[in-house]
Every structure is written in C-alpha cells, then in structure tokens.
Amino acid sequence: MMEVGIFAKTFAGPLPDVLRTVEDHGLSRIQFNFSCAGLPSMPDAVDASARFFIQQALAQSPVTLEAVSGTFNMIHPDRSVRVNGLRQLWVIAAQCSWLGTNLLTLCTGTRHQTDMWTAHPDNDRPDAWYDLRQSLDKALELAEHYDLYLGIEPETANVINTVEKAAQLLKEVRSPRLRIIFDPANLFEHEPLAVVRQRIARGLDQLGDAIRSVHAKDRDASGQVVAAGTGRLPYNDFIQGLRAIDYRGNLILHGLSAAEVSTSVAFIRELLHQT
Fold first, then answer.
1. Where would I find the Xylose isomerase-like TIM barrel domain in this sequence (predicted)?
2. 219 by DSSP, 3-state: which?
C-alpha cells in the first residue's frame, strides 16, 4: 500500500529533532540528505563521529529511509565538477548499507554553470547526452559495487527533460540498476491541464515498470513549485494512474515549507483513501 513520506531537509534542526518532527506528522519514510546531519549534501567524507551520530539518531526513531540524495550536475560543462561529483557519490554509496537503503537519487544535469535545476539550450545537444552517458556509466559501476539502484527523474530543466528521453535512456543503458523517480510536477510548467494529464499518463505507461519511487509536489498557474494539493496537478487522476500500473512504492513530499506539511499529508492521504 502506498504511504506518504517526505524529504527530511523540509525540516530544520539537528537530525534527532528532524526525525521526531517527521514522526509527529505521522510519517515513517524519508528521503535522506546528508545536510540533515550537518554535512554537505555531497560530502567529501563521512567520518566515524558523523556515522555514529546518524546511526544513533536513526536507531532511536521508527523513521526509515526511502532513498539518499546523491544529486550533482552530471553534465556540468566543467569536467572537473563532474569528476568531483562522482567521487562524492562513491562516498555516499559507501554509507547506504548502514543507512538501510539501496536507492540513490541523481540529477541528470544541465549545461547551466551555477544551478543544476536551471535549463540551458545546450541540454539538447548530442554532447550533453554523451556526457550524461559517461557519468551514468561510472555511477552504475558504484551501484554494482555496493548493490544499489540509481534513480533518475524526467525534469524540464535537465538533459532528461521528457518521458521519451527517460525511456530512451533506459533502453540504451539496459541495466537493472537504473530506475525512475517519477515526479509528475516535473513534466510541465505552464501547459494546459489536458497536456499535463496526457504527459502524466504517457509517463506512467512508458516508465511504469521502472518506477521505484514517486515524488509529490505541485505547480501553480505561474509554473512555480508549490505544496502538493495547492496547485494545478490532477492528483486524483495521478493516484488512480499509479494504482493502474500496480505501483507499490511511496509518495515522497517535497517542494513545500514545514508549515505546509500537515495540509499536504492530509490531502494525499484523503486521496489514497478515496481511490
């Protein structure tokens, strides 16, 4: 049965406080980010003291990990940035076993120099696809080494910016280690609702077997990201679509403030109950 989870970094404070806040909202699954433990999101190292601190916090909480964020710009125009991101990804991968998850989430990247969530016209060039394949092939090596899965998501600002490109990548790579993180709000910005519904339905149809986790946020009429249930996304249709493909994972909230969590949790749970 689908459950509601959340990005841990939605809440501020030391990790034990974050986990208690997650629990207070009636949630038990998080996408973990090392920034929640006072480290960079992409750490250069996780020393023994940091590991002990995280382990103790998790041991004292019923909250478990859906995934760990390992997002860096996989097609950054500066090769050294990509190399460093892969090195840091190895550091994160080495922690996944004791963290209790086998899913790493990635960002397929953009040619934008300073923001990996901002689109760039060069994202559609063949050399951008080539660099993605190079980075992804190396990431798959660490996934094999540590028995992990890598989750990518179609995202309008990134090189994999359509369902079709995600399907093409899965076909080319042909690795059981590569999975999809499906976020319907990443498939549109200003398009009419009929187009939004069409893209979501096509995404579930083409990527369904590979979907490992679902992210839940929303977009308003201006295209800005807002909390799930406060925008234009047809969530009732979306959840029915997830049931139709027999999706058995969770819905992980993000793109919202701490003050909005209770309302979004109630919104999603009511839909899960209705459908």
1. 22-269
2. strand
CA 132 – CA 238 distance, rounded (Å)? 29
Query: What structural domains does the chain harbor?
Result: 4-274 (3.20.20.150)
Global pTM reads 0.95
Helix (H) or strand (E) holding 22, with range, is helix 15-24
d(Cα 5, Cα 214) in Å, to the nearest integer?
10
Strands 218-219 and 225-226: antiparallel
Q: Are 204 and 242 in contact (CB under 8 A)?
A: yes
Calculate the dihedral angle through the C-alpha atoms of 174, 178, 179, 185, rounding to the nearest 10 degrees. -100
Amino acid present at 211:
I
pLDDT in tens, 151-200: 999 999 999 999 999 999 999 999 999 999 999 999 999 999 999 999 99
DSSP characters over 147-208: T-EEEE---TTSSS-SHHHHHHHHHHH--TTEEEEE-GGGS-SS--HHHHHHHHHHHHHHHG
Please name the amino acid found at residue 136: L
